[in-house]
Design goal:
The complex is a heterodimer of chains A (about 160) and B (about 375).
Chain A (H helix, E strand, L loop, with lengths): L25 H12 L3 E5 L5 E2 L16 E4 L3 E9 L12 E8 L6 E5 L12 E6 L12 E6 L4
Antiparallel strand pairs in A: 1-2, 1-3, 4-5, 4-7, 5-6, 7-8
Chain B lengths: L9 E8 L11 H14 L10 E5 L2 H4 L4 H5 L11 E4 L3 H14 L4 E9 L5 H6 L14 H14 L5 H14 L14 H4 L4 E4 L1 E2 L8 E10 H7 L4 E10 L13 H9 L10 E3 L5 H11 L6 E2 L14 H14 L5 E8 L5 E8 L8
Parallel strand pairs in B: 2-3, 2-4, 9-10, 9-11
Antiparallel strand pairs in B: 1-7, 1-8, 4-7, 5-6, 8-12, 11-12
Helix pairs in contact in B: 4-12, 7-11
The chains are: A mainly beta (about 160), B alpha/beta (about 375).
Chain lengths: ~160, ~375
């Protein structure tokens, strides 16, 4: 019998920690994420004339089920922003950028994303921005299919 | 969910807190809590055996271990068995649960405690995990960035300036000089604070809360038991909590309608007539939003403890607001007080607790 204390006799086995289930994101978030893969941004029509982007299954104020999904943008206006000097590895961009709520054309609520503006001097509330989508083959139905937003005048 | 018109009156009869510090290097959560629980009991001469209910607030995400609140029970002692509950929220919400229990009349006393150690983890990442998993969390926004979006919205709306934020910070830390438990205190003029660098523009260093490790505990008692235990109980005349949508971009970040609703539910009306208000405003501009939402006049003493800008232990700072406000009634320096606790990004969820030296109508 081999000596179990010998280092080369220690049993080794892979241990993979995984979620053994998949989760559906549902008809509204699912449609939004599928839209992103197609390069389109969808919003949900809600009560009191709201067009909620990103869309939710329920109106954020009245909690009634949302109506049909409509395409918005792609351009929009920054409603508020903050300058990130020290991006971390988790962030969408590795150089300093602006966090922003972007109200896309046709929407009444803000989408949180980042703006690749280069400098806080290039940012202002109300400024126009447009999304920079990842190349079609790299999109996976995820918020980061929009790589970032960029100031509209720079193309 | 607002204060029921019937039910026995319930009061805060004791409050204790640990020193609020940047880093608890040598004590785990149980070791932080034990002296606090001991103090909150000894102030009124009771023991765990006198408690009809125990409720705690904490977050496994901060501890980095599942069911961490179970091991924290060692600070109270788990034998003999007791009626016990936990919320994965600030202790202010644990107090709400205990208040409900006492109103129902099954038990006369309750211990409420909470603990939070932010120093071992990466707080910015942990707090991103509380956000919408599809629409917000993938960007990993730190809490400072979300607060900065709110601060910019406040400035753009013409409601306040960066100088106003500095005024709030200067006053809070000056008031904290009188608070022996405060982590951050000092006497620096607003003009001097304006020389701080931006952390996330438009928020400079002084407008941010410190990262804090701490614990706190409160004892609640109902009806006559409250007057037996305390000469001047801080009666809870109303308590309510409300939440806004988790869709950050669908909210008006310059106001706090959920705070206004909670204040109404707590019986405070449009303009809170109190001597003292302890507001859980982790970021300087949030105090200005809350003052508006609560209709606080210039005569109200706001955050004499220094508030969350002086110490902001997650899961604890809200309960401390209730404890500090109640303490001012118990020590006779205030007749009516208001305490506020918040949770979620940019004041998403808010709890308002109204306290008074006078027994609320409804009798015992």
């Amino acid at each position: 019998m081999p000596d179990p204390t010998a280092a080369d006799e220690v049993l080794r086995a892979p241990h993979v920690l995984e979620y053994t289930y998949t989760r559906s994101v549902g008809p509204v978030i699912g449609a939004f994420l599928t839209g992103l893969r197609q390069g389109r941004i969808l919003g949900a029509t809600g009560d009191e004339g709201r067009v909620v982007v990103p869309p939710a299954e329920y109106d954020p104020v009245t909690a009634r089920p949302s109506g049909e999904l409509v395409e918005v943008g792609p351009g929009g206006a920054v409603s508020t922003w903050a300058w990130e000097n020290e991006p971390t590895a988790d962030h969408p961009l590795s150089r300093p950028f602006a966090w922003a709520l972007v109200v896309l054309d046709g929407a009444t609520t803000g989408l949180l994303h980042v703006v690749d503006a280069g400098s806080p001097d290039a940012m202002a509330s109300g400024m126009r921005v447009r999304p920079r989508f990842r190349p079609e083959g790299e999109r996976r139905g995820h918020l980061l299919d929009i790589e970032c937003f960029v100031p509209e005048e720079s193309s | 969910m607002s204060a029921a018109p019937t039910g026995r009156p319930v009061a805060v009869v004791s409050f204790a807190q640990s020193p609020q510090v940047r880093r608890e290097d040598h004590r785990n959560e149980v070791e932080m809590l034990m002296p606090v629980v001991e103090e909150v009991f000894s102030r009124i001469g009771v023991t765990k055996a006198d408690m009809g209910f125990v409720c705690s607030g904490s977050s496994d995400y901060l501890v980095g271990a599942p069911f961490s609140f179970v091991s924290a029970l060692d600070a109270v002692g788990v034998w003999p068995p007791m009626r016990e509950s936990h919320v994965e929220m600030d202790g202010a919400w644990a107090l709400y649960e205990a208040w409900t229990m006492l109103r129902a009349g099954d038990v006369d006393t309750a211990l409420v405690y909470s603990f939070g150690r932010s120093s071992p983890g990466q707080l910015a990442k942990i707090l991103a995990l509380q956000l919408d998993p599809y629409y917000l969390a993938p960007l990993w926004p730190p809490p400072t960035a979300l607060a900065a979006l709110q601060a910019r919205a406040v400035i753009d709306a013409g409601r306040a300036t960066e100088e106003d934020f500095a005024e709030v910070a200067a006053r809070s830390r000056r008031q904290a000089l009188a608070n022996p438990h405060a982590q951050l205190s000092g006497d620096r003029a607003p003009g001097e604070l304006m020389k701080d660098d931006y952390v996330v523009s438009p928020l400079r260093r002084h407008a941010l809360p410190p990262i804090t490790d701490g614990a706190a505990a409160v004892v609640l008692a109902a009806g006559e038991r409250a007057t037996e235990l305390c000469d001047r109980p801080a009666w809870i005349t109303g308590i309510d909590h409300r939440i806004e949508t988790h869709a950050l971009g669908a909210r008006d970040l310059t106001s706090s309608p959920s705070t206004t609703l909670a204040a109404r539910g707590a019986g405070l009306g449009e303009r809170a007539a109190v001597d003292v208000a302890e507001l859980h405003a982790p970021y300087a501009h949030q105090e200005l939003i809350l003052r508006d939402a609560l209709g606080l006049g210039a005569e109200v003493s706001v955050n004499p403890s220094g508030g969350a800008l002086a110490a902001n232990a997650l899961m604890v700072a809200g309960l401390i607001r209730i404890g500090e406000a109640a303490q001012r009634i118990m020590d006779g320096s205030a007749a009516r007080a208001l305490a506020h606790a918040t949770s979620g990004p940019c004041l998403q969820q808010n709890l308002v607790c109204a306290l008074a030296a006078e027994t609320p109508s409804g009798g015992r």
